[in-house]
Every structure is written in C-alpha cells, then in structure tokens.
Design a protein that fits this description.
The longest helix is centred in the middle third of the chain and has 18 residues, at 101-118. This protein has seven helices and eight strands. The protein has helices at 8-21, 40-52, 87-92, 101-118, 143-154, 169-175, 209-221; strands at 33-38, 56-60, 62-66, 69-77, 83-85, 131-135, 159-166, 184-189. α1 packs parallel to α2 and α2 runs parallel beside α7 (209-221). The chain has 222 residues and is an alpha/beta fold. The chain has a domain at 8-60 and 121-221: Rossmann fold (3-Layer(aba) Sandwich). The strands form two sheets. Strands 2-1-6-7-8 form a five-stranded parallel beta sheet, with helices on both faces. A three-stranded antiparallel beta sheet has the order 3-4-5.
C-alpha cells in the first residue's frame, strides 16, 4: 500500500529496513560504500549507513533544469563536471546541448563549489569499491542518478546499486541496466500516478548547504 514518508530521515529508516530484509547486513557482496546524492539523498543515506554499518559519503550532482521549468531535470553533472543530457527530454523540447552551454558552465562552477564546501577534495575512488550503492530521496526523471552511475562506472566501480524510497516506474526501469548503469534498482514505492518526489513526503523542506554539512558532521562524529 502506498504511503507518505514523514521526512527524509524516516524514508532512510524504512529503506534500511528493506535492505536488511534483503540480507544486506549478511551478504558477502554487500556494498562497501554508500553514496548519498547531494543534496536530498544525504539525509536518506545517513540512517541507512548507520543501520547497515557501512561507510558513506556525499556524491555531488547538479541538475540541469529545462528552460522556463528548472525543476524538470533534462540533464545533470556529476563530480567530474561532464554533462549528461536526457535524449528524451532534449528531443521533446527541441533542444541541443549547445543551447544549454551557459547553464552548463554556471552549474559546473556551482558543482565545484559544492565539492569544496561538502568534502574539500574529489571523491576518493582509488581503488574503486567493488560494490557501491547510490541513495537519493526519489526519482522523477532519474537523470541525476544516471549521471552518478556514468561517473562511477567511468571510475571503475564494478557493481552498482541504486536505492530510493520512491520512484516514477519508468525512471526506475530505465536505470536498471546491469553492467552499464545500475545492476539493481531498489525502491519502496513505484506509484503509477507519480507527480513529484516531494508529493510523497509530509515534510520535504529544502535541503540547504547547512543541513548537508550538519548531516556530514554527524557522520564524522560517529
């Protein structure tokens, strides 16, 4: 039965329960690293990592919003700054990558500022983990999670999982491409009438930089 999550922390606890039921705390090939997508995925990742006793970090992604509709993700950047565009939305909106060059440049600058603010250095992936799990607060178009997968595969991660509380069915299905994007996509809910990620939370207040830093500080303290 579909339900609303109280907030991102509640969603993370429920996601942790589901992963424990799958035996992730006992499986020999469980992820050795969890990565919360900044910004909303950070608060979801923390309780999952604590329950599974797995190290975690922040993975910085920046969405590229559609002209006139910045909430519609038609592209994304991950930590190396390489843009990834949604073929579907670019074709539907009649856009070319060069049409978004100014936006990409602006978001690349913002991306590097966030990396410096949240971690201070690039994500350490040497040697790359054999199995990593990306966590976010939800999937709408899925473009940010796709950019994260492309980035992690490029840096040698062999097995890659994605775990989110709620997802648009078509987004989740498109990302489950073993050996290419995600080997498995774990969701608690895939409502047909999806709407938006925030519509599945009672409290979906904005994740500020201060909240991200506070959550990361709790990790360091632990």
């Amino acid at each position: 039965m579909l339900h609303l999550f109280s907030d991102r922390t509640d969603a993370g606890r429920q996601l942790a329960d589901a992963l424990l039921e799958k035996g992730w705390d006992r499986a020999p090939d469980q992820p050795s690293l969890l990565l919360g997508l900044a910004r909303g995925g950070v608060e979801v990742a923390r309780p999952v990592a604590e329950r599974l006793s797995v190290p975690w970090d922040v993975l910085v992604v920046r969405k590229l919003g559609a002209p006139g509709d910045p909430e519609l993700g038609i592209g994304a950047l991950c930590e190396d700054g390489s843009p990834l565009f949604s073929r579907f939305w670019m074709k539907r909106l009649g856009l070319r990558p060069e049409d978004l060059s100014d936006l990409v440049e602006s978001r690349q600058k913002d991306l590097h500022e966030k990396i410096l603010k949240y971690r201070g250095y690039p994500l350490p992936l040497l040697p790359p983990p054999l199995h990593a799990c990306v966590i976010d607060d939800g999937l709408a178009t899925g473009i940010s999670a796709e950019a994260a997968a492309v980035y992690l595969r490029r840096h040698g991660v062999k097995r890659l999982s994605l775990a989110v509380p709620v997802a648009a069915p078509e987004a989740a299905e498109s990302l489950e491409r073993p050996g290419q994007l995600y080997d498995e996509v774990i969701t608690l809910q895939r409502p047909e009438a999806f709407g938006s990620v925030g519509s599945w939370y009672e409290d979906f207040s904005q994740m500020t930089d201060e909240r991200v830093l506070a959550t990361l500080e709790r990790r360091r303290a632990a």
